Amino acid sequence: MVTLDAIQSKIAKLQKQAETIVQKQTSIGLTKIRDLMAKHGLSVADIDRFIGKKRGRKPGKGVKAAGPKRTVAAKYADPKTGATWTGRGRAPAWIRDVKDRSKFLIDGSAAKPATKAARKPRANAAAVKKTAAKRAKAAPAKKAAPAKRAARKTAGRKAAARPAQAAAAA
């Protein structure tokens, strides 16, 4: 029977053999590289310059940033804690369930939404009427389509049931 010491000694011998094989392979690879460098007249500095050019993105290229990050002024403030919120993103717990957020508006913020609405350019009145007419026409058609489908299904079921009834009667 093989003992634990015998197995461990075999493992140690195999590990030494693996290390020597790795050393031989690396030395063979390095000698090949040295020979190629001598054959082509290259130095380590030449290789470093070549690799430096190919790796990574070139400076100033690639994905451009959207611009400098803008800091947005706070729009809401919690009177109890003084915590602020810009009105963007997920609402904090202190304002989440409040229906009328105007109580939490910071001074001067109440006037801003009205000026934004006033500054927003209006579309051509004729174009607005056309799109409204298109929506009005399209809405009933969409509602009628499910009714037509349901009528077709029931007609198909009735037609399928007729031969079965005729066969049962005969």
Overview of this protein structure:
- By secondary structure, the chain is mostly helical.
- The protein folds into 3 domains: 4-54; 76-119, no CATH class; 123-170.
- Helices cover 62% and strands 2% of the residues.
- The protein has a two-stranded antiparallel sheet with strand order 1-2.
- Strand 1 (76-77) and strand 2 form a beta hairpin.
- The protein is extended and about 85 Å long.
- The N and C termini lie far apart (86 Å).
- The mean pLDDT is 78.
From N to C, what is the helix and strand string?
Answer: HHEEHHH
| Count of distinct strands | 2
Gross geometry: extended
Strand order of the largest sheet: 1-2
What's the gyration radius in Å? 39 Å
Low-confidence stretches: none
Characterize the largest beta sheet: strand count, sense, and whether it forms a barrel.
2 strands, antiparallel
Roughly how many Å apart are the termini? 86 Å
How many independent structural domains? Answer: 3
